[in-house]
């Protein structure tokens, strides 16, 4: 009997850890707004892949496709904090829903420009209009922060779930986009993404009971002046460059191997590894997480896809991406938790949006760099770009650890 108890203890311990997620979604209204944000968030994993496949197929240039998507992401990075400030002041429903409508129209304009052979500059203009896409992950995290403001341990689990949800959508999104563009018509991914974004945001904003109350004009200083925020912003930017360059490079590599349709599934494995790691990380809730340690793991693991690509095997690359993805969710959860702790409560959406701004700016730069390296070097050599971006994120993280440590050594 004692042996049986000892054997079952680890199983029971894991069950207790993951039972926290059941309690999390037992909160009134949590399931309803989560359903809406998942539907609205799924297109976030579809739009870039759909645009790259659609533009590269019609115009024959990955460099142009990468530049167009980079322009849209850069525009989103500029507009994001402004929209978030309006959300903090006027509420989620009043701002996010009309902003989503404008973004959906931008996606449809891009589709029509590609479909009917409009000049290249119109692609940049149309995709820039998608900059009004609300930061749905930030809106959802704000709701959790409002509901769990007195429960930091449960908030950690909610943040981990949100990161896992991001990864789940970036896992399923590319697969769905590749399926739609490959089996229906090249513009299908963009069209379906616009519909899902609009429908999901309508459902999310309809859940008014869990919406944080609007804040009066904040007297708090900009989040950029909060201790530890500027170096975290640099860290998010470098991490974004990892994501952006890896996406374009992987699509080009699969295309060179004659398996363009498999690109979404291969990219999904990276997100799958991150999703699983994020859920485990949230359930275990390690004490005093160290951001620079997470970044170090990510920097090392991001060299694996480059090594796998030299073998010429898409299967080897898929396995490397699965392993490499396991470092990203813990990194993002740890960094976003620090942001929530260091941002004034009445400017929380703005603070998180600034981090997403950095992330999107990094994705834009990484996407452009990955496209250039693919076209001017080779699909294999282009995998050096995400590896270098991972090393840069680690350097930024070390600086962040020093700055944060001056204010709170336990969270450095």
Automatic annotation (TrEMBL):
<feature type="transmembrane region" description="Helical">
    <location>
        <begin position="227"/>
        <end position="246"/>
    </location>
</feature>
<keyword id="KW-0472">Membrane</keyword>
<feature type="transmembrane region" description="Helical">
    <location>
        <begin position="380"/>
        <end position="398"/>
    </location>
</feature>
<feature type="transmembrane region" description="Helical">
    <location>
        <begin position="314"/>
        <end position="339"/>
    </location>
</feature>
<feature type="transmembrane region" description="Helical">
    <location>
        <begin position="261"/>
        <end position="284"/>
    </location>
</feature>
<feature type="transmembrane region" description="Helical">
    <location>
        <begin position="291"/>
        <end position="308"/>
    </location>
</feature>
<dbReference type="InterPro" id="IPR011701">
    <property type="entry name" value="MFS"/>
</dbReference>
<dbReference type="InterPro" id="IPR036259">
    <property type="entry name" value="MFS_trans_sf"/>
</dbReference>
<feature type="transmembrane region" description="Helical">
    <location>
        <begin position="351"/>
        <end position="374"/>
    </location>
</feature>
<keyword id="KW-1133">Transmembrane helix</keyword>
<feature type="transmembrane region" description="Helical">
    <location>
        <begin position="62"/>
        <end position="83"/>
    </location>
</feature>
<protein>
    <submittedName>
        <fullName>MFS transporter</fullName>
    </submittedName>
</protein>
<feature type="transmembrane region" description="Helical">
    <location>
        <begin position="95"/>
        <end position="118"/>
    </location>
</feature>
<dbReference type="Pfam" id="PF07690">
    <property type="entry name" value="MFS_1"/>
</dbReference>
<keyword id="KW-0812">Transmembrane</keyword>
<feature type="transmembrane region" description="Helical">
    <location>
        <begin position="188"/>
        <end position="206"/>
    </location>
</feature>
